[in-house]
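> run fold Malonyl-CoA decarboxylase
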Amino acid sequence: MPIDITLGARTWIERLWSSIADRGRPYADVPGIARPPLVRAELLARSLLSERGEASGAAVARELLSVLHDLNAEDRAAFRQFLASEFVPDEATLRAAAQAYLDDPSAANATALFEKAEPPRQEVLRRMNMAPGGTATLVEMRRELLQVLKKQPELKPLDTDLHHLFSSWFNRGFLELRRIDWDTPAAILEKLIDYEAVHEILGWDDLRRRLAPDRRCFAFFHRALPGEPLIFVEVALVKGLAGAIQPLLSPVDGAAPGFDTAIFYSISNCQDGLRGISFGNFLIKQVVEELKSELPQVKFFSTLSPVPGFRRWLKRRLERSADVLRPEEEAAILALHPVEEGAEKPTGAAVLDAMASGEWWLDPAKEAALRPPLLRLVAEYLTRPNTGMGNIDPVARFHLGNGARLERINWLGNTAPRGMTESYGIMVNYLYDPDSIEANHEAFTRSGAVARSAAVDAMLSLPALVPPKGRSGYLPRLLGGSSENGEKPAA
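> ok
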């Protein structure tokens, strides 16, 4: 896929700002190079706020980015601390604005309070973004910041400001959707191999298979990061719902005859510095529209998704409770673990996790004993009411919160090591039905109700949840939302 337009636009912008910065250099307050690099960076950051001219500001911003580029890791960490602790609102001015609003809650006073509450740090970051490469520098700064944020909570104000600015700068209106195929420049294809976060791409032959005629791949790009995908989705064209990932990744070429379903089997965020900025909702919505236009025979849109939190959840549940398994399930498991005479009889819950080690699924007896309880428990895990951000699987929250229906639970859908480790190989299909997306989304958002099929209900022996019908043909916010805990959403 050619990218000349985006690259050309960016090159033109870089030339423009470089020219402005060159002309502004004689008027800018640029500290001498004799100072230590960290001190010089701090002085340049302060100078950014004092510059009033566009040309002089661009000159200072360009100089600051040049200095930051050459800082060592220790000095970069110190500069982040400097940004987080300095450039805060003036307390007296803010207090006066707040009191004025309390005395007279007018629109004018509300606006004044808002302006006084904004940290000067945000203006520093905006002006840093004026320099060529400014956006990439700030995204990289946040990537490093997020790696240490838990241990250094004092950096939270800087993270909050960066997140706030990125949410505006990476608004959907600035994103460009492109299809990725084998004619896309190699530099971008290499990035897909590097950034794939769900199902590893094993070199160029594997990538060629994922870009075959029965596959589609789409990505979002932004003018400020030319040649850098922000997020991409991989799609398989099949007949009916796909229940396992290995056949989709097999090297067999050729579209399935009579395919009628688009399976979204991998969604990967590419920029760690943009974590928490929602792209998946817009991406899937637009890809659905692209596929409907190109391939009118495709009538169904579904995911084939992992359940990354299931095994951790089950382990905690087994540790807290002795009655996780039903009597018949426990009996089937214990039958495979004869107890020596005089030894204490273990519970089924105690041996379940021990059984699920090695290639246990190749042992017919173990597979038959583990299948009923694990399928029932994963159904329970995925259909619990959404009562808080930490109470539901992150991938489930991503899809259910945007109107998908939990359609089917697939036994041994992913027998790769990661799939077995995270969820005993179980995968699920989340179905996007245009007639019910809106109703499902509202039910999940308002009450935490999980829309699910009769097949899933059969695993639970619970009454079916039937949400009200949405408007026919209406396709609202597919996949809107992000994970606050930093986990990357995936198909």
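The chain has a mean pLDDT of 84.
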